[in-house]
Structures are given as structure tokens and as C-alpha cells.
């Protein structure tokens, strides 16, 4: 078992009255598995993902339960142990690369960051590896991209850069939080194909967070449906699409745009 999440509850204390945003969340993932986490905005899916990545503040958020990654409980381990996992064994891709990428640093420097932190390497070795991963995410002329600034790239190219940065240390778990939301339909399909290729080539487990069930159906073998902080339904993706039990899941499936051809 790569990842075991049990009875995860997340409560925020940054208001006068504490607010619980995730209730009794459970998830098991094996190596190389692709799991979807779906729900509308505010359902708790991104908070759950951030907790798994160890990115929720230990001061503002109270977390109960267990998040065990390869035998290490992320909620209980020393900060140093967690830092050793982040960006190395567990990586995360965020929704909007323009807010995640530093506008004044070149792409190459940013793609190399996790390698600088976690690997003993020379600048030459880092550049070779960065060019390699930029090439692997299907960016044309990776040398030019390496020397570019974020504003010089399209939205789709920036998202590929984020994936390259996340994959530079070949993590075992890749968490993709709404990675296609800001992209047009054609680029969305390309990113989904890229994630499939990464999974196949490196046996990388992927937790794919989205409100778009049609993308989840293309990518994920299993899916968890969240509403109001709870997992309301989970199972094999095709079974849930063909025979949803919950009215909320039926609503999400019915809301998928239908293409009508004249």
C-alpha cells in the first residue's frame, strides 16, 4: 500500500467559530494507481489533497486521523521527515501555473528547484535533467523553454512546465489539483494524455482532483465523490458512471455537457 488515509478530519481555527471542512475521509492507493477525487467547489476535495501533500498549516488547521505514506504518518512525523517527502516522493500540480510560477525566475531555475533541495547534483546535472523532463512533457524546443520566463509561454505550456517540475525527481505520488481548469478543451485532452503517459512510463500513482467528471472518466480507474466535506460515494469509475447511487452523483453526471451534432 502506497497511501493509506483513515478518518481524516480537517478543522480550521482562523475564524471565531472553528469550521470543519473535511469529515472522516478515507482513501487507499497502491503504486501506479490513478484515483479521481470529484465534487463541486467547497466540497473538501482540495483540502483533502493539500493535507495528503503535507501542505496545510499546522497552526491554522487541526487535523485528526492518519495519512500514512509508505509507513510514515504525515500528520505525526517530524517536520524534517515531511520536508524530505515533499517534492521528492510526493509532488503536487496546482490549478493555475501563473500563480505558482515565479514571474521573475526563468523556467529552468524553477523546474530544477526540487532537485536542488533533494538531490546532490551539479548545475550541469540539473540542467540536463530539467531539459530531459521538459522534453518528456512534450514541450517543443525545451532549451528555449528552459531559458524563458513564465509570461513568455502559453497557459498550456506553463501547465506542462508545472508537471515537469513535479516529475523531476520521479515521485511515487503525483497530486494534480484541478490541473486543466484554466485550459481550453483541446489542451485539457493533451494534459490528460500526458498524465496517462507519465503513469504508464514511471508507474506514478496519481490523485486527480477535478469537478469535471468527463476528464475523470478518461483518466481514472476509481473515483471518490465529495459533497460538503464528506465522501458520499466511491468505487470503480465506470460503475459509478453507469449506476450512480447518490442523487448528488447523478446530478454531477447529468451536468456533463452533451455535444449535439447537426
What's this model, at a glance?
It is built from twelve helices and ten strands.
Please give a structural write-up:
With 262 residues, the protein is α/β, with parallel strands linked by helices. 39% of the residues lie in helices and 25% in strands. The protein has twelve helices and ten strands. The strands form two sheets. A six-stranded mixed sheet has the order 6-7-8-3-9-10, sandwiched between helices. A hairpin with a 6-residue loop joins strand 1 and strand 2. The longest helix is centred in the last third of the chain and has 18 residues. The protein starts with a strand and ends in an 8-residue tail after the last helix.
Number of helical stretches of at least 4 residues = 12
Overall geometry: globular
Radius of gyration: 19 Å
Helix content: 25-40%
Distance between the termini: 49 Å
Order of strands across the main sheet:
6-7-8-3-9-10
Structural class: alpha/beta
Helix and strand run: EEEHEEHEHHHHHHEHEHEEHH
Strand content: 15-25%
The tally of strands reads 10
The biggest sheet, with number of strands, parallel, antiparallel or mixed sense and barrel status, is: 6 strands, mixed
Mean pLDDT: 93
Which spans of ≥5 residues are poorly predicted at pLDDT below 50?
none
Please give a handful of descriptors for the protein shown:
262 residues, alpha/beta, six-stranded mixed β-sheet, 12 helices, 10 strands, 39% helix
List the helices and strands and how they pair.
Blueprint: E1 3-12, E2 19-29, E3 34-38, H1 45-52, E4 61-69, E5 72-73, H2 79-85, E6 90-93, H3 97-100, H4 107-111, H5 113-118, H6 123-136, H7 142-146, H8 155-167, E7 173-177, H9 185-202, E8 205-210, H10 213-219, E9 222-227, E10 230-236, H11 237-242, H12 247-254
Parallel strand pairs: 3-8, 3-9, 6-7, 7-8
Antiparallel strand pairs: 1-2, 1-4, 4-5, 9-10
Helix pairs in contact: 6-8
Amino acid at each position: 500500500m502506497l497511501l493509506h488515509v483513515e478518518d481524516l478530519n480537517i478543522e480550521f481555527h482562523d475564524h471565531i467559530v472553528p469550521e470543519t471542512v473535511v469529515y472522516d475521509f478515507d482513501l487507499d492507493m497502491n503504486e501506479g494507481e490513478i484515483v479521481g477525487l470529484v465534487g463541486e467547489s467547497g466540497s473538501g476535495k482540495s483540502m483533502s489533497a493539500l493535507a495528503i501533500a503535507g501542505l496545510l498549516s499546522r497552526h491554522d488547521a487541526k487535523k485528526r486521523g492518519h495519512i500514512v505514506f509508505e509507513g510514515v504518518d504525515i500528520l505525526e512525523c517530524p517536520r524534517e521527515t515531511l520536508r524530505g517527502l515533499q517534492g521528492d516522493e510526493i509532488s503536487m500540480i496546482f490549478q493555475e501555473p501563473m500563480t505558482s510560477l515565479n514571474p521573475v525566475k526563468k523556467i529552468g531555475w524553477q523546474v530544477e528547484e526540487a532537485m536542488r533541495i533533494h538531490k546532490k547534483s551539479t548545475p550541469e546535472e540539473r540542467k540536463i535533467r530539467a531539459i530531459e523532463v521538459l522534453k518528456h512533457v512534450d514541450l517543443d524546443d525545451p532549451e528555449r523553454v528552459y531559458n524563458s520566463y513564465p509570461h513568455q509561454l502559453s497557459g498550456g505550456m506553463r501547465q506542462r512546465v508545472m508537471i515537469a517540475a513535479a516529475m523531476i525527481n520521479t515521485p511515487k505520488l503525483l497530486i494534480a489539483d484541478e490541473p486543466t481548469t484554466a485550459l481550453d478543451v483541446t489542451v485539457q485532452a493533451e494534459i490528460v494524455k500526458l498524465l496517462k503517459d507519465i503513469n504508464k512510463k514511471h508507474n506514478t500513482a496519481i490523485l486527480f482532483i477535478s469537478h469535471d467528471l468527463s476528464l475523470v472518466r478518461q483518466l481514472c480507474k476509481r473515483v471518490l465523490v465529495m459533497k460538503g466535506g464528506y465522501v458520499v460515494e466511491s468505487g470503480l469509475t465506470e460503475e459509478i458512471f453507469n449506476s450512480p447511487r447518490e442523487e448528488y452523483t447523478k446530478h454531477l453526471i447529468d451536468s456533463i455537457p452533451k455535444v449535439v451534432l447537426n
